[in-house]
Amino acid sequence: MSIFKRLGDMTRASLNEALDRVEDPVIMLNQYLRDMEQEIFDAERTVAKQMASERMTKQRADQAAELAASREQAAEQALRDGNEELARQLLEEKLGAEKQAADFGQRASELQSHTEQLQGDLERMRDEFVALKSKRQELASRAEAAKATKQLSQVSSQPVIQAGGASRGFSRMEEKIMQLEAEAAVSRSTGYSSTYSGTTQTYVDPSTQLKVDEQLEALKRKVNN
Q1: What is each CA distance from 108 to 112, 128, 158, 220, in whole angstroms?
Q2: Are residues 125 and 195 in the same domain?
Q3: Domain carrying residue 197
Q4: Residue 94 in contact with residue 148, Cβ under 8 Å?
Q5: Helix, strand, coil proportions of the chain in percent (round to 5)?
Q6: For the chain, what is the domain count?
Q7: Whose CA is closest to 206, among 190, 184, 182, 222?
Q8: I need a labelling partner for 168 at 20 to 30 A (CA). Which of 45, 48, 63, 153 fits?
Q9: How high is the pLDDT of residue 46?
Q10: Cβ pair 32, 132 in contact under 8 A
């Protein structure tokens, strides 16, 4: 075998082994779980950012509401002091603060609704991950059992194949031995057989003797079987 052929065989063996690893169900199940873990991690970060944005928006809404209340009190005090122009300006600021408080409040409400939705999705992902981890154990056990059964079947089938080849070989050798025996029988029966009854010689036909030997061998095989 040339070095190039051996290298080619090694390369093909390595590729086949790599493909077997890629297509291995247990390896793929582990990869799916790792991918889902990353998805859960990303979802947790998204929920955390959403919650931070919601809290910040609520704080700004509260600050705007507090500003509106303080501007109203200041405007009231300005009127008591007889400064109507200042009171008008403070009331304008109050209205602007109230609008901001309403806008931030609405935005905070929307963010809260979205946050609750994301949290629900995250919980479902976590529940599904736990269920898949449990199912992974089941599938991995089934895969290992199937592999073991397949390997056992392959191993146990080898002796059957070898025995079949040996049987065929024995049959061929038996036929060859029978042929040799027949040839030997022909050689022995060539010429005259000296079967004496007094002084009389009996002639036996060689072809008849060969047929007798063949039938005798056939009977032997039949009896043995």
Answers
A1: 6, 30, 73, 103
A2: no
A3: 190-224
A4: no
A5: 90, 0, 10
A6: 2
A7: 190
A8: 153
A9: 92
A10: yes
For the full predicted model, state whether its pTM sits above 0.85: no
Q: Are residues 149 and 209 in the same domain?
A: no
Percent of all residues in the chain with a pLDDT value above 90, rounded to a whole number: 32
How would residue 132 be classed by pLDDT, with cut points 50, 70 and 90? confident
Of 124, 26, 47, nearest to 34 by C-alpha is 26
Contact at 8 Å (CB) between 190 and 208? no
**Cα–Cα–Cα angle for 136, 142, 143, nearest 5°?**
85
Specify the pLDDT at position 192.
43
184 belongs to a structural domain: no
Q: Tell me the pLDDT tens digit for each residue of 45-86.
A: 999 999 999 999 999 999 999 999 998 999 988 888 888 888
- Domain membership of residue 26 (yes or no) is yes
Q: Looking at the domain assignment, is residue 171 inside a domain?
A: no
Domain presence at residue 102: yes
Mean pLDDT to the nearest integer, 180-186: 73
Return the bridge partners of 197, or none: 200
